[in-house]
Amino acid sequence: MKSSPSKHSPLSPSGSKTWLSCKASVGFIEKHWEELPKDGGSSRYADEGTEAHEYGAQLLLRKKNVPAPRSTEMVACIRDGYVPFIWDRQKRIGAKLLVEHNTPLFYDDQQSGTCDAPLIGASAAEFWDLKYGAGISVEAKFNSQLAIYAESILRDKWPKCPRSTPLVLGIYQPRAQDNRFVRKWELTRGDLADFCERIEDTALEIMVDPHNQPFVPEADTTCRFCKAKSICSAYAVHLLEDTPEPVRKQLVPLELKISLPVPAKLSPGQLLKMMRVKHDLLDWIEKIEEYLVPQIQRSPKKYEGLKLVAAKTNREWSDEADAAELLGTVLTDSQLYPQKILSPTKASDLLHSFKKPLSPKFLKQVAKLIVKPEGRPVVALKEDPRPPLDSDAASEFEDLSAADSKLL
After folding, report:
1. I want to staple 119 with a disulfide (CB 3.0 to 4.6 A). Which of 84, 107, 126, 208 is the partner?
2. CA 82 to CA 182: how far, in whole Å?
3. Of 158, 153, 226, which is closest to residue 196 (Cα–Cα)?
4. 127-174, pLDDT tens digit by residue?
């Protein structure tokens, strides 16, 4: 199955977590592509990631006079972290570095993928992927995207690589929330080949018959980044499968106003289930709204019970300079420009941008002035990493001297 490059890559390495589990997703997306909500342009986070990758690639290629990003954090993460790390790995195994290497995919040579930093040595190989995002921590072990890159490059660049050859598939994520910046999956060439057998079989199965494959929804993994979850009934049923029957019955007739049961009448098990699907339901409803906007624009009569309205915005000055000049005739400067001290986060950014390092004594004094108010009680699942309110949180502050230095 081929698709227009302007649309999407049907069996992309980045989407492999979805299509390997839910084989129906590829054909379903292909069939309903025009109906799906389209991305509203690039986001700040995507732009950050692109900039970090481009900056890192130029440095790895040892180009001279590479302009530094405006973000001092990005400079520290890439120039002082990622780049020397890759060079050290390259030196360690005596390998050739292929920067931002684009390779045809082993299961479909009409598609290609880009690996950030493959290292091909005489008796070992490593494949590194830079993840600049600070949100989800990406694991390297059993990572199908990394495996696809590695298998594709090895078949192309080292087809006779012995099965006993040691390999490393790695993630470098300098802003990972758990501070595990480096994650490795150490295996042999044979292990990788065996792991990729299922990937190849599944990809070929989908390409032969993309529109007759089973749906296997799973909110936390398979469906998380699926483009079609806003219109997928299998996903909707999955979210509601263990929902209390009164709720399910009332969700069926969408033309009626939903009157949900009183929380006090739900059992502990039912309440737990509702909390587990809370974020997925909210996300699903947001995806439905994104889908509906262009649909209503094209066929307003088809959705007679709905209409498009302008989102709420705050009033603002059309020209701040003109407004300041006019208001300044009747208001004092203190009224016109109310002052508020900058936040600890902004202060930290400014202090770390100083070319001359500040004294540890000064930083400790500033750190002692920073507090983090306790948030109001909210319900969370048991596996949530935040400590319960009635727990002893003293263990978080075992080393105050180290904590002081990290507050800024």
Report:
1. 126
2. 10
3. 153
4. 999 999 887 789 999 999 999 999 999 999 999 999 999 999 999 999
Strand 117-120 with 108-115, pairing: unpaired
Residue type, 179: N
Report the DSSP pairing between strands 96-97 and 108-115.
unpaired
Among 89-93, 217-221, 375-379, 401-405, the least confident range: 401-405
CA 174 to chain centre: 14
Determine the Cα–Cα distance for residues 395 and 190; give it in Å rounded to an integer. 44
Q: Is 160 left (phi over 0), alpha (psi -120 to 50) or beta?
A: alpha
Tokens encoding 246:
């009164």
User: Is pLDDT larger for residue 320 or for residue 376?
Assistant: 320
Q: Which amino acid is at 265?
A: K
Tokens 């790695």 found at: 170
Mean of the pLDDT values across residues 23-28?
Answer: 88
| Least confident residue range of 248-257, 279-288, 311-320, 357-366 | 248-257
User: Residue 397 has which token pair?
Assistant: 């502050």
| Rounded-to-integer distance, Cα 99 and Cα 118, Å | 7
Residue-averaged pLDDT of the chain: 81
**What does the pLDDT look like over 185-196, one tens digit per residue?**
999 999 999 999
The residue type at 12: S
Whether the Cβ atoms of residue 129 and residue 115 lie closer than 8 Å to each other: yes
- The band of 5, judged by pLDDT with boundaries at 50, 70 and 90, is very low
Ordered by start, the domain boundaries in the chain are: 42-208, 233-297
Comparison of pLDDT for 184 and 340, the residue scoring more = 184
Query: What does residue 43 show for φ and ψ, rounded to 5 degrees?
Result: -100, 165
Q: What pTM was computed for the model?
A: 0.60
> Do β-strands 166-172 and 125-130 pair in parallel, antiparallel, or remain unpaired?
parallel
Cβ burial of 356 (10 Å; 0-12, 13-18, 19+) is exposed
